[in-house]
Amino acid sequence: MERLATEAPGPPAALTGERLRSHTADVLARARARSAALTDAVDDDDLVRQHSKLMSPLVWDLAHIGSQEEIWLVRDVGGREPVRPDIDDLYDAFQHPRARRPELPLLGPAEARSYVGEVRSKALDVLERAPLEGRALTRAAFAFGMIAQHEQQHDETMLATHQLRRGEPVLRAPAPPPRRATAWPGEVVVPGGPFLMGTSMEPWALDNERPAHEVDVAPFAIDTTPVTNARFAEFVDAGGYRDPRWWSAEGWRYRAEHEITAPRFWRREGGTWWRRRFGVDEPVPADEPVMHVSYHEAAAFAAWAGRRLPTEAEWEKAARFDPRTGRSLRFPWGDDEPAERHANLGQRHLRPAPVGAYPDGASPCGAQQMIGDVWEWTASDFRAYPGFVAFPYREYSEVFFGSDHKVLRGGSFGTDAVAVRGTFRNWDFPIRRQIFAGFRCARDLRPDEAGAGV
What we know:
Blueprint lengths: L16 H24 L3 H5 L9 H20 L31 H21 L12 H23 L22 E4 L2 E5 L15 E5 L2 E4 L5 H9 L11 H9 L8 E4 L2 E6 L2 E4 L11 H10 L7 H9 E2 L4 E2 L46 E8 L19 E8 L16 E3 L8 E2 L3 E3 L10
Helix pairs in contact: 1-5, 3-4, 3-5
């Protein structure tokens, strides 16, 4: 087989020396500003309260961010004296399930803010002095990028906690841009054949994204955009939640046990679907991607529609593969970092944008909004790639591999650009509904379509 073209390294691989240090400091500062905004938006009572058994108190997330930064940047990379070794176990996510964290002797809001500030000051000093080569942990500032991604991931978790919070709205952001594309096909065809999946070149890619490897994918069709609220409402109104034909046995049991009848945060009033979004009650926007649905709900809709969820490999090929060059891109639009015209990321808006809002972010096959807006469920279990090596610790990915977790791709409006790319893999239990997740459907090609797109 002819070798596929190699992937192009992108920032921060193109940066060295002081430019790399400056870029890394900016990424860390962006994450910290967001953490502060999410925690400063509420009073101390709200910070220490558990708003859902599914989530930690916001103050736990804040101190946990500082604890991980201390362990990896201050102690490991910097070789400095510990700041608070006494709280290592307290903020170890594997020792304490979320439902039990309010019972712990957590740092209070003022103490947590002081702690993360002290750790950040020391971490920036380490960044100024540490060699950014040699060890795999420090090469191209990987450890700093890992910590920035970790903080942004917890920021998205805190944003989900805000969605679960009761009370008056405390978060505000401008509306997303309106639809720009006026017409598009309902689906696009992705050609069959091999492509390069994963990455070996992206300097801040995490272990589960590695290594790059060839995957042969049969030709298939995939929705041009994520499934919208209007389309999903058709499934609901057609009795989709009452008909076991569309559900897996596991999904039907969970739906019935929890009496699930619509996406989370939806309710029906006077013939209209309403939703609660960050404390605001509003009619469900017809043209936004559906959100707060589990894997089971997504799979049931797909079965009802005569389609299926894409595999992880299909999703990535639709998002990254350029058939003109045979190369896998960093992002659907190319190798450049996301700009506002490409995708709805970084909590710039507090909702998905209407489908068709980001035609400049389309992939080579024509699929739109594959980055940002909503995480997209795939049909695939979370598994290691061939040649996977756990780095820098098993608990980041390896302990989650298996059939218990399904893969999500693409990021949401609450995902920062540093924490998503064409190779980025998220995973969760198939019952999860509080996350900012939606989906798009795919299908096998019919025999008369076998040559399409090839």
